[in-house]
Amino acid sequence: MSLADRNRVVLLEDRVENVSGAEFPLNFGSQDAVFNLEDFENSFDINIVCVTETDIEFDLIGVDASIANALRRILIAEVPTVAIEKVFMVNNTGVVQDEVLAHRLGLIPINADPAKFLWKQPGDIPTDQNTIVLKLDVTCEVNRDAAPGETDPKKKYINSAVYSNQIVWDPKGEQERQFADSPIRPIHDDILITKLRPGQVVSCELHCEKGVGKDHAKFSPVATASYRLLPEIQILEDITGDDAELFRSCFPPGVVDIVEENGVRKAKVVNPRKDTVSREVLRHKQFEGKVRLTRVRDHFIFNVESTGIIAPEKLIEQALDVLMEKCAIAKDAMAKITNGDEEK
Description:
The chain is α+β, with helices and mostly antiparallel strands. 22% of the residues lie in helices and 32% in strands. It is built from eight helices and 18 strands. The strands form six sheets. Strands 1, 2, 3, 4, 15 and 18 form a six-stranded antiparallel β-sheet that branches. Strands 5-14-7-11 form a four-stranded antiparallel β-sheet, covered by helices on one side. The two termini are 45 Å apart.
């Protein structure tokens, strides 16, 4: 089996072949598969495809699925952020119970740089270096200026809905000076927390702490972090005329185009990365033996959506730092075992 074929996941009509990686020594007879750092450096690459305020799409090329999945899991669970950890309920006469309200508050992303705060260990007292204090104090009242017969609660009442922009930062110690350029607040102003009616009150104090997603999902800095293998569509024989139109309709828009060569309309693959790999084309007998669907095993298309706490490009940097730290720990442990210094 050639290197190119070994590096492809093959999609057939009723099954998927060559799923598992087999790149290890002596698995292919005389072919050497020993890891070579120089070869890895030549094949490894990261291509940034798109970056927005909250999203990033990039290609990770030349690594095993275990590395790609480690990066994905670190993005979700091991990049630290700051989130609401404790809710001290002073008064809550609304319909949402204290426990549910506290849970909803905890999931609100907080705009605070985790690098500027210390980890709060069990038994530590709250300080301006490990805790952020926020307050929420809202009372619903009748709007005396509302038109007679008004039925819209937003016009009929004042504070009928409690939103995240009503959470107020209460700076402690040096925090006001330290965060003068970027005051601590919820990332989004329009997150609905609860609804109230006249006479109902929500009053509480919120303490934010530094944490990671593996302890609780509220600390996860990403909304989604996923990857998929790069699709590859190989046209083995020319597909022309009406068959070309049918062939194009089997894929999402932008994957296949119709070009004219010597007066003949032919199907041409223009952007395979847009393909969702539905295998619809394999249902049609006229395309049997004319097309081959594969996925490149070591080409990962990453899509990461930040919650807004950390910029997406910074998220990738921090996740890679955590991955390198883990590799260093594993390397040191292996060195101790090799030298016979492991603990008995």
